Amino acid sequence: xxxxxxxxxxxxxxxxxxxxxxxxxxxxxxxxxxxxxxxxxxxxxxxxxxxxxxxxxxxxxxxxxxxxxxxxxxxxxxxxxxxxxxxxxxxxxxxxxxxxxxxxxxxxxxxxxxxxxxxxxxxxxxxxxxxxxxxxxxxxxxxxxxxxxxxxxxxxxxxxxxxxxxxxxxxxxxxxxxxxxxxxxxxxxxxxxxxxxxxxxxxxxxxxxxxxxxxxxxxxxxxxxxxxxxxxxxxxxxxxxxxxxxxxxxxxxxxxxxxxxxxxxxxxxxxxxxxxxxxxxxxxxxxxxxxxxxxxxxxxxxxxxxxxxxxxxxxxxxxxxxxxxxxxxxxxxxxxxxxxxxxxxxxxxxxxxxxxxxxxxxxxxxxxxxxxxxxxxxxxxxxxxxxxxxxxxxxxxxxxxxxxxx
Length: 406
Known about the structure:
The structure is a single chain. The chain is mainly alpha-helical. It has a single domain (7-186, 196-401), classed as Up-down Bundle (Growth Hormone, Chain: A), CATH 1.20.1250. It is built from 16 helices and no strands. The chain is globular and about 55 Å long.
């Protein structure tokens, strides 16, 4: 398939890019906005848990809608609810910290609806041969928006002096979400796919086979994602006390990510997945070590640049191999919605587990060394993920091409 000749594929990437741009503009500073009202790490941990709980439940419940009805409406609603979330943040203002759970649940619903529909459509328009390539383009778009969005937002917040700047950025995000909804109406309606099996995830785990390796690998991967998704940017702000510095951090790290995703998207081949994923996981852990010396802008920048440089080596195989399993046979293809749900539930449970560890530890101590050691512990999870997923890569034919791996 030549993606450049498929207008629907280009349109899907455009919708994804705009959604990520809006998220990059406001999402980077959302936790900072809450932190400035109440400086409490555990509060932000609970906010993120609320998101993940709603995201997981939305994936599972909305799977019936996406499979049996119009999945494009689920995608549009997810974008619209994201806009409503920022409208609520604007309405609450400095009192948003008093509504951590309802706001987190609302945000999680929006993310669940969008990513469930997007992942299913992404699977339908891709194949095992071009999935690494498409993942590279997704990474490229994420990096470009990561360069533009946070830097611009940080600059605007700085020159508008705080609260008014945040309100302006959140309003701009709402407008972009609106434009994205309109653009999504040009995506063709996808065919329905039969009846939704509510307990498919349970049955897959009960049966064992290749999916148990994928589930455990994704769950372990999620432990890092849940905490790192908000803590690193927050630590940059705490270390510098300047939104402009956070915008600069995002600009630099996203620029590195842009290059690394472009290189991997162009030259990374399926036969390198097993080795590449391990190298990426190990290097992502090593770049955390400088924080043991001191947690400042320089050491955090080393972490950010190093992660951006090596994460494509880890993420491209992780994403591609789990989607390849969905196309392994006719039964899997017919149950692709349920398998997308299983994939996301695995990640979500891992994220919640990592966040609970984070909250438990920081409820006892919140000093810099404790936070750094926690980052090292959770930062090692990609290696654990590789231990499970290595059995799924091409070359281990028993695990990859048979119904049972044992």
